[in-house]
Every structure is written in structure tokens, then in C-alpha cells.
From TrEMBL:
This is histone deacetylase. Keywords: Chromatin regulator, Hydrolase, Metal-binding. It comes from Tremella mesenterica. GO terms for biological process: heterochromatin formation. Its EC number is 3.5.1.98.
Length: 302
């Protein structure tokens, strides 16, 4: 996690991995316990639970699964806590952004929803938190978690139409007290930087003016980039990063998170570039990147 503190300095923080109890602020105890106990070796004893919790196919069991979830969630929670205590202006956790995970179900490579846990932490200090999702997939897990409240507004820009997870229709906008506090922008294949910007900027300006959030969480899934193995948008690195730059310009406490991204070279390049933007540095080429990199000391949650 990297955090600029006053005076443009950057700092890497080693976040404490999230505990089972912390994960249970959103997830059920039974589901968290299952994630804690299951291993590739004992998986055969849990066949009933595997289908109940949707673990096995898209969400495989691997060595260190629980530790991975703890690190991802701990990074987002620590970032949120530091933002709330005014210890930084921007916190970054590229190991987070796992937006599909549900209260008692894994989904789309996501097991523990670090984003929901981070937002819950922000809600201890802020009356209203805005969540923005630029992953190519709908941010369904986060939307569902806050669908009935006006204390979190969610805005997801995603491919829609015969595409995972299948939700995020434009008319889905919250229920009860949450009515009007979920925004969905369904998009088609091949959207370009210019078209994306022409939707993203006015929509976000309107939302931020209207909602006046105390803090913003931006999920920067990089599967919306051109050439992604799963996504089919046509965004360049700069077009993607323009979203980060634009949201940063509102000068609100900002938690930047990772997410999807299946063409690894583009993911690493884009998140490195966006880390630079967060720190107020524009990275232009390999040489400059190398010159700046040691000062950025970006890292994962641990
Ligand atoms: Zn995705």
C-alpha cells in the first residue's frame, strides 16, 4: 500500500492481514470458517460446502487461499482506516478490488470482498461513501451489499449483455432507502477512450455534486483495457488512467483498489502508471520509471 502524506511524500505500509472476525463484519461466520479450513488436501471432505459456497470451479482451492484473502482484505481495511484518521490523502491496495464476492459465496475469482470491508471501515467516520467501479465486469458484490442504504452510493461502468456476472442493468438503481443510490452504466464491446470519457466524466461529476461523499473508493479493474484476455473494451492505458486522474481531481480521501486484469503486462504497466498519478508523477518511459520507482515504494498489502 502506498500513501502520499502531506508534502508529497509516499510511504509503504505493511498492513495487518484481516482476521476471521474482521471478515465476518460482512461475510457469515460459517463461510469465513470454511475458507479458513479448506485446503487442496482436505477438499474432498467439503463437497457439500463447495457447491453451497460456489468454491471449486471459477473459484479454485489453492494452498494459501485464506492467507491470500487476509492480505487482500487487510490492505483495504488498513487503507480505509488511514484515510479516516487523516494519515494520508490516497491509499492504494492493488491486491484488493475483489468486487464479486458475496456475503456467503465466492464468485468470479473473488472469495472475500475487501471492498465492502474497506467501505464499512470508512462508514465509521464518513456519513456518505462513494464507490466507483471501472472493471469490465459489473461490481455486483459491492452493489448488493449496499443496495438498500443511502450511505453508500455505487456507480459501475461495465460490459453488459451475455457477459459475467449478468447483472448491472441501467434500471437497477437500489431499493428502499437505497433507491437512487446505485448507478449502472452498461456498455458494449469496443468502447474507446473518447467515448468512455464522454460518459464517465459527466456522470461522475453529477454524482459527486449531488451526493457530496466524504470519501471515495475507486476499483481500477484493468480488464477494461484493450487486449485483455477476458474483457473486450478498447481502452488504452491513458484512457483508463484518465478515470483515476479525474476522480483524484475532486481532492477527497481516495482508496484506490485493483480488481480484474488478465493480460498481465498491461495490468502491471497500468497500475504502475496509476500509482505514479496518485503520487503526482507522470511516468513516461522505462528510464523515468526506473528513476522514480525506488521513491514510490509501492507494494501490496504485505
Ligand atoms: Zn473484471
Amino acid at each position: 500500500m502506498m500513501e502520499p502524506i502531506p508534502g508529497e511524500s509516499k510511504k509503504r505500509v505493511r498492513a495487518k492481514p484481516a482476521t476471521k472476525r474482521e471478515m465476518s463484519q460482512f461475510h457469515t461466520d460459517e463461510y469465513v470458517d470454511f475458507l479458513h479450513r479448506i485446503t487442496p488436501e482436505n477438499a474432498h471432505q467439503f463437497s457439500k460446502e463447495q457447491s453451497k459456497y460456489n468454491v471449486g470451479d471459477d473459484c479454485p482451492i489453492f494452498d494459501g487461499l485464506f492467507e491470500y484473502c487476509s492480505i487482500s482484505a487487510g490492505g483495504s481495511m488498513e487503507g480505509a482506516a488511514r484515510l479516516s484518521r487523516d494519515k494520508c490523502d490516497i491509499a492504494v491496495n492493488w491486491a484488493g478490488g475483489l468486487h464479486h464476492a458475496k456475503k456467503a459465496e465466492a464468485s468470479g475469482f473473488c472469495y472475500v470482498n475487501d471492498i465492502v470491508l474497506g467501505i464499512l471501515e470508512l462508514l465509521r467516520y464518513h456519513q456518505r461513501v462513494l464507490y466507483i467501479d471501472i472493471d469490465v465486469h459489473h461490481g455486483d458484490g459491492v452493489e448488493e451489499a449496499f443496495y438498500t442504504t443511502d450511505r453508500v452510493m455505487t456507480a459501475s461502468f461495465h460490459k453488459y449483455g451475455e457477459f459475467f456476472p449478468g447483472t448491472g442493468e441501467v434500471r437497477d438503481n437500489g431499493i428502499g432507502k437505497g433507491k437512487g443510490y446505485a448507478v449502472n452504466v452498461p456498455l458494449r464491446d469496443g468502447i474507446t477512450d473518447e467515448n468512455y470519457r464522454s460518459i464517465f466524466q459527466p456522470v461522475m461529476t453529477r454524482i459527486i455534486d449531488f451526493y457530496q461523499p466524504g470519501a471515495i473508493v475507486l476499483q481500477c479493474g484493468a480488464d477494461s483495457l484493450s487486449g485483455d484476455r477476458l474483457g473486450s473494451f478498447n481502452l488504452s492505458m491513458r484512457g483508463h488512467a484518465a478515470c483515476v486522474q479525474f476522480i483524484k481531481s475532486f481532492n477527497l480521501p481516495l482508496l484506490l483498489l485493483g480488481g480484474g486484469g488478465y493480460t498481465v503486462k498491461s495490468v502491471s504497466r497500468t497500475w504502475a502508471y496509476e500509482t505514479g498519478l496518485a503520487a503526482g508523477v507522470e511516468l513516461r518511459g522505462g528510464k523515468l520509471l526506473l528513476a522514480v520507482w525506488p521513491k514510490l515504494t509501492i507494494g501490496h498489502a504485505q
